[in-house]
Amino acid sequence: KAKEEGKNRYRVFDESLDQGMIRRLGLENDLRRAVHNQEFFVLYQPKWDASSGKAAGMEALIRWRHPELGIISPAEFIPIAEETGLIIPMTRWIMGEACRQNQQWQEEGFEPQCVSVNLSVRVFESQNLLDMIQCALSGTGLDAKYLEVEITESILASDIQGIISQLMKIRELGIKIAMDDFGSGYSSLGSLDKLPIDTLKIDQLFVREYESGSKKAIIQAIITLGKQLNLELIAEGVETIEQSEFLNGLGCSIMQGYYYGRPMNEDQIREWLSTSTESSTVLVQVSGPQL
Ligand code: C2E
Ligand code: MG
Ligand code: MG
Ligand code: MG
């Protein structure tokens, strides 16, 4: 009997593995189609400066509206896009869209904000990343100072010299560069001062567990490091007033997280921008669906 159960267990395992592989293969095909059919849209998550009581930019986050499966999380499709190289046309699209939308908000009279776009390490291998960025700016008329790119520590594991020279050219255009999810990746601290970056984004993992002694120590160390290297600091994943006060107390006043605002569509951002500039106090409840 035990033997049978054992066999069954293996079969169940195999089947679920197949299911996972089938979904993945399906998504891979669908992703090619999605790039052509424009099945993507962008949400924007605000950043908040608690010391000035003002909006401090926002981050563009891609979403995929799959015709049969509904909204699929980037955590699932970005790795597939990276492996297939589809991340390159997708990044070209979101870069253009984020610049267009940002320019439009400014033309409508909202106080100018810097919008950041996430860059996978894979797009640095495409060789025309700089072109892609310049096209997005010239095609929309957005001033480069209102564009930021976010990279991750995983770039430290690849052709670092090639990437540094590309980052320097991007920066020469006047675009800011942020290190995303800092502390969660390769953390080769020795390479950090070689990178032309302006901002460290403290990974949300540390913020979530800030009450644990070790996470608290890591947050303090990152803030000290950032200040010593003259970098701006921003904390990700701030969900509570307690986390916000803790970070602010340590000198990290710029924050991003559900406490300040979820990723929102363009109209919800309009509402957020108008209410957040009127009131100096924080919590702005934006109506509409939580996205
Ligand atoms: P990320 O760049 O670190 O973005 C932050 C993620 O954390 C977003 O998830 C955001 O919705 C979520 N988040 C923000 N505040 C909170 C909070 O208070 N609590 C919690 N629990 N989560 C919060 P999202 O939009 O699902 O994106 C996941 C990741 O997918 C991003 O992490 C980024 O690495 C990647 N991604 C998203 N859009 C793009 C894109 O256009 N290009 C590339 N290359 N990657 C992207
Ligand atoms: Mg990011
Ligand atoms: Mg992040
Ligand atoms: Mg992340």
Textual characterization of the structure:
The protein is of the alpha/beta class and 291 residues long. It is 48% helix and 18% strand. A hairpin with a 4-residue loop joins strand 1 and strand 2. The chain starts with a helix and ends in a 13-residue tail after the last helix. The model has no long low-confidence stretch (mean pLDDT 90). Bound molecules: ligand C2E and magnesium ion (3 copies). One magnesium ion binds next to loops. This is Bifunctional diguanylate cyclase/phosphodiesterase. It comes from Paenibacillus zeisoli. Residues 24-277 form the EAL domain.
Topology:
Blueprint: H1 2-37, E1 40-49, E2 54-66, E3 70-72, H2 74-84, H3 87-107, E4 115-118, H4 129-140, E5 147-152, H5 160-172, E6 176-182, H6 189-192, E7 199-202, H7 204-208, H8 213-228, E8 232-235, H9 241-249, E9 254-255, H10 266-278
Parallel strand pairs: 2-4, 4-5, 5-6, 6-7, 7-8, 8-9
Antiparallel strand pairs: 1-2, 1-9, 2-3
This protein binds ligand C2E and magnesium ion (3 copies).
| Low-pLDDT stretches | none
The kinds of small molecule bound in this structure are: ligand C2E, magnesium ion
Helix and strand pattern = HEEEHHEHEHEHEHHEHEH
C-alpha Rg (nearest Å): 21 Å
**DSSP helical segment count:** 10
Strand order of the largest sheet: 1-2-4-5-6-7-8-9
Protein name: Bifunctional diguanylate cyclase/phosphodiesterase
Domain EAL: 24-277
